[in-house]
UniProtKB/TrEMBL annotation:
Ranges of residues in domain Adenylate kinase active site lid: 127-162
Domain commentary: Consists of three domains, a large central CORE domain and two small peripheral domains, NMPbind and LID, which undergo movements during catalysis. The LID domain closes over the site of phosphoryl transfer upon ATP binding. Assembling and dissambling the active center during each catalytic cycle provides an effective means to prevent ATP hydrolysis. Some bacteria have evolved a zinc-coordinating structure that stabilizes the LID domain.
Keyword Cytoplasm attributed: yes
Chain spans, region LID: 126-163
Gene3D superfamilies: P-loop containing nucleotide triphosphate hydrolases
One Pfam family hit: ADK
GO MF term (any one): AMP kinase activity
Lineage, uppermost ranks: Bacteria, Pseudomonadati, Planctomycetota, Candidatus Brocadiia, Candidatus Brocadiales
Name of the protein described by the UniProt record: Adenylate kinase
Known pathway: Purine metabolism; AMP biosynthesis via salvage pathway; AMP from ADP: step 1/1
Record-linked PROSITE patterns: ADENYLATE_KINASE
UniProt: Zn(2+) binding residues: 130, 133, 150, 153
Presence of keyword ATP-binding: yes
Task of the protein: Catalyzes the reversible transfer of the terminal phosphate group between ATP and AMP. Plays an important role in cellular energy homeostasis and in adenine nucleotide metabolism.
Length: 227
């Protein structure tokens, strides 16, 4: 299966992507993680992307499309992947369609996470990440046992610089300005599935699994094409 997670920052895309990718053996491709890795490694791409990420703005399409193309062409993505945070503009969505067409494939489902602005702000302001293993926590909703310490590996938890309130406001603005159009685009394609995401993590996971169960029962043959 080839799946996209669409929705505002902080909606819970990364959290659900972790669960689903493990369960369904899909590669979890997070554009944000790929970009942050590039920044950390000081690559040419990372140097270009850094200034945009810091301001909460979108990294130029060409840079992101190139990173995603490279990743999708990896062998481990042959049998399916889950894109989290990409595409975010119409140009990216069209580039993705082209890429998949060349590979004899197409997207199966786009999940659209519907959540209020109040929840977005609450979720982002409490988000904490493990500096060692990347695990995702929330000070209130998904707290670690020991304050500031990862349950899984003992690493130190930190807050992403772009999760500070000022940048969060800018990211929400950019989402409405540049990403929301994709909802119509995928609705027209007939592959958009809205997931009401105001509830707890488990309930959302169940909803996603139900949609996938129904979809895979009548999966068209093309999905087994070579990639
Ligand atoms: P995104 O990838 O969409 O930006 P995340 O998955 O990183 O969002 O979630 C943002 C924050 O909210 C994280 O700290 C996560 O632990 C928390 N979170 C995720 N889903 C929920 C939920 N359904 N209810 C409450 N908190 C959540
Ligand atoms: P969130 O889901 O919490 O908004 P991400 O980790 O997906 O955060 O993205 C963090 C930042 O990385 C974005 O604010 C943006 O600067 C950059 N970024 C990630 N994905 C894309 C994309 N598809 N196009 C452009 N910029 C992106
Ligand atoms: Zn950890």
């Amino acid at each position: 299966m080839r799946i996209v997670f669409l929705g505002p920052p902080g909606a819970g895309k990364g959290t659900q992507a972790e669960i689903l990718s493990k369960e369904k053996k899909l590669q979890h491709i997070s554009s944000g993680n790929l970009l942050r890795d590039a920044v950390e490694n000081g690559t040419e791409t990372g140097l270009k992307a850094k200034q945009y990420i810091e301001k909460g703005q979108l990294v130029p399409d060409q840079i992101v499309v190139d990173i995603i193309r490279d990743r999708i062409l990896d062998k481990d993505c042959r049998n399916g992947f889950l894109l989290d945070g990409f595409p975010r503009t119409l140009a990216q969505a069209k580039a993705l369609d082209e890429m998949l067409k060349k590979l004899g494939n197409k997207l199966d489902i786009v999940f659209y996470f519907v959540v209020s602005k109040e929840s977005i702000v609450l979720r982002l302001s409490g988000r904490r990440i493990c500096s060692a293993c990347g695990a995702n926590y929330h000070t209130k909703f998904v707290p670690s046992v020991k304050d500031g310490i990862c349950d899984k590996c003992g690493g130190k938890l930190y807050q992403r610089a772009d999760d500070k309130l000022e940048t969060v406001q800018e990211r929400i603005r950019i989402y409405h300005e540049q990403t929301e159009d994709l909802i119509e685009y995928y609705k027209k394609n007939g592959i958009l599935k809205e997931i009401e995401s105001e509830t707890d993590i488990k309930t959302i996971t169940k909803k996603i699994f139900n949609v996938i169960k129904d979809a895979s029962q009548n999966e068209p043959l093309i999905n087994f094409g070579v990639a």
